[in-house]
Amino acid sequence: LHRVDRRQRQMCIRDRSFNGITTTLRNILKQNRGTMRRYYEPGNIANITRRPPKVVEQIITNGLRANDFRDLKVDHEYESHLDDIIAAAADNSIIVFTSPISHFRTKLFFERGLKEDYENWLRLLVRKFGKVFHFSDINSITSNHRKYYYDSYHSYPEVGDMIIKFIESEGAIKKDDFGVVLTPKNIDGYLDSNYSESNKIMR
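The structure assignment produced for this chain is given below.
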């Protein structure tokens, strides 16, 4: 039985490897034919071909219509989920950062009257983890959807590179105003200045 199980495991590994190669080849073909926007490079690295700005704007418009946050509700179990993550990590460190959604989505929080919920969310993260690398606000990167985004949620790979450099350098390597390190000492001041600046942009 041991030999059979080992042989089966080896076959599964070969099948997975073959499937991975097949998928990679298919992605290359689709990419070359221009029929695929998102694809994976060797090493399971996601990439995406750029969309024309007019196409991006149409996709964003359609996406905002489909999900306009009207039914968005606070998850009252969110804090307990964070506690579970902290407990599971034990002595391991946790790096917390917010996803850089486009300015369209951030503005919707304000327009839907969710400013207090958004603020409480950031305060909770800071209270639980002590430090949060925050990118999900209105800044020069999230506002430039024509250059950095292919829909209202997802950005191109270079934005991910900016995030990595920012986190690894503790905020020392920064692209313009993209990214802020939130701590218990600066969270109040950040929220006050952020909303005044965000309101200016919205007007």
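Interim note for the steering committee: DSSP finds eight helices and four strands in the chain. The mean pLDDT is 80.
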